[in-house]
From TrEMBL:
Protein family: Belongs to the peptidase C56 family.
Coiled-coil region list: none
Keyword Transferase in annotation: yes
Location of the DJ-1/PfpI domain: 3-165
InterPro entries the UniProt entry points to: C56_PfpI-like (IPR006286), Class_I_gatase-like (IPR029062), DJ-1/PfpI (IPR002818)
Species this protein is from: Lentilactobacillus curieae
Alphabetized UniProt keyword annotations: Glutamine amidotransferase, Transferase
Protein name: Glutamine amidotransferase
One GO molecular-function entry: transferase activity
Amino acid sequence: MSKIAVLVTDFVEDIEYTSPVEALEKAGNDITVIEFEAGKTVEGKHGTKIKVDKAISDVKPEDFDGLLIPGGFSPDQLRDDEKMVDFVKSFLLASKPTFAICHGPQLFIQTGLTKGRKMTAYNTVRPDLYYAGAEVEDKAVVVDNNLVTSRTPDDLDQFNAAIVDTLK
């Protein structure tokens, strides 16, 4: 069993949170939802209520084996916070399993660690990744060592399979 951190805030794309979390839990992984404030409830774009387990100020990257960043409007808000960016940066630097879908890869741009990494994302995010030095591919799932990225909810079956497989 792996311990997986999930970074979210309000306006996350509901299915990009619920579907991967369900797949990860079904595979026996332990999920910790992290936001700015522990104990609060964030709301997805379509009304899903998500209880926050821990505040970003109360966790360390070394407490987790992997990281999930769902899309929606959440990643754009999270990337404005230095603690969130540093948390993500730690996973990339340590080559820990790191998963992001749709707008999730926006957080990678803030880390300065996209250069030369193979990635995909939502079509409006792909140019940003490219200009940040990533090798961008328009595929359902792109796996670059322990970094797994995906484009949209349409790709969730492939994304979920890839993230579960990466943790084996």
